[in-house]
Amino acid sequence: MNSEFDFGLITAIIKRRLGLVLSFAIATFLIFAAVAYLLPPRYKASATILVESQQIPTSLVQSTVASNAAERIRVIEQRLLTRATLLDIAAKHRVFADRPDMSPSQIFEAMRDATAFELMQFGDPRSRRSSNAIAFTVTFEADKPQIAAAVANELVTLILEQNVKLRTGRAAQTYEFFEQEVARLSDELQKIENEIVAFKKANRDSLPESLDYRRDRLALTQQRISLLERERANLLDEKRILAAGLEDPELLAQQLDRPLTDNEKELRALERERARQRAILAESHPRIRALDARIAALRKIVAEELGAADGAAEDAGASGRNAIIRKVEQDIAVIDKRIANIEEEIAQLDREQHELERTISQTPSVEMALAGLNRRYAGLQAQYRDVQAKLASAATGEQLELKQQAERFEVIEQPSVPERPASPNRPLILLAGLGAGLGGGVALAFLIEFLNRRVRRPSEIVAALNIEPLAVIPLVRTAAEIRAQRRRRALVALGVIAATAVGLAALHFLYLPLDLLAERAIEKARLDSLVGLVRARLQL
Known about the structure:
By secondary structure, the protein is mostly helical. The protein has helices spanning 7-16, 18-38, 69-80, 83-93, 104-114, 145-202, 211-246, 249-257, 262-278, 286-307, 318-402, 426-451, 458-465, 479-511, 514-524, 528-539; strands at 43-52, 115-121, 134-142, 408-413. Among the domains are: 7-13 and 424-433 and 454-539, no CATH class; 210-388, no CATH class. It is built from 16 helices and four strands. A four-stranded antiparallel sheet has the order 2-3-1-4. Helix 8 packs across helix 11 (318-402) and helix 9 runs antiparallel to helix 10 (286-307). The two termini are 64 Å apart. One of its GO terms (cellular component) is plasma membrane.
């Protein structure tokens, strides 16, 4: 058979096999109608939940729950769709009470398939601005409308509870974390404070804050040692003078018993002046040398005056001279004691000087170690203040969550008992059955025609016999064949009418009354105003 067909041949095939096409279409439609009728109705109950933003301005109070609403919704969804939760809901509401043979795994799978979450985000989803509103719907599908509504309400309740629990739990965990951090940093601060105190006690003589004092003390100590050494030198000179006087008791007695001459007074004044100047000037200083020269000259003059003096002093008694000698010896003893005290004080000042020099040399290393401790202490103090501020924010955020004044879920559409089943879509099944029947019937007709090897066109004769026909005699039907053809057409018409009637009856009784269906179709097509106008004209 040649595979080239023209439109006339296709039309002829359809006409010739019209009965077969209609029969197959009717049978297929009836099967689909039976399936649509036998499928159990499924009811859906859904709720819409809106994610409300924080009521108090975020510039005043900041929530400590940083996760966005979409992420939190997915977390809640995964928690609700766990095996234990779904089995509890199914048992509580007796979702599968009419199917006692179902195993827990089957119940879990059925509940999971019947539950659906759908997230709706308004605005640009890529933007992180708070103006992007978020809502989501939760839907449950069941065989009975009451069960669908009850389970949907149960899911809404669990969602609200999970959201509050999730947010308050995270806020409490945040507060607990910062509370632990504050306690830890407080312990570390106390520890390093004890270290600083112990270090300062161990190095109290080398601390940098007393460096200036120790340097001043060292200078004063050195100056004091210098003064004491000069005083000791003066005392030694005075002792030497007194000791020289003891070697000539007569001269000493004359000097002490008689009145002093002007030269003797001047000599004593110069000796006192030399002692004062020697306390602050060196032995080789020009002024000291000048004083020594004047003192030597006056001593020579005084010695000459004493040689020419009256011999009345010779009559002085030995008892007077002895008293004078004892007094000089007492003065020498006092000078010796003072010299010993001075030497002891110089030794003590030497020890203090060495200790000051040692502590001053140790101060740089002590300062570096103390600076390290202070840096650690300052760093911990900064962390402690920062964590304390965050702890206060966490406490405020926790109160915000406990009072439900932060971001929250609000049910804007409560689940209600559905009035009509959501599935199966019987009109769509019937329409699919009609299309499948007609398409399958046409395909079956063409398949039969293609398998039929009879000659139908002159071109097929030429192709088969390789000859050119002179004429083509069409098929001449007898009267009986014509009557049989009319009967077949009548039967086909009746079948079509019956199938149409069955389909309309199925729509009317199984899905929706035909008058309501027509009204909905008119509303969908927006022809209600036109129909109203036609009815008004007809009434006129």
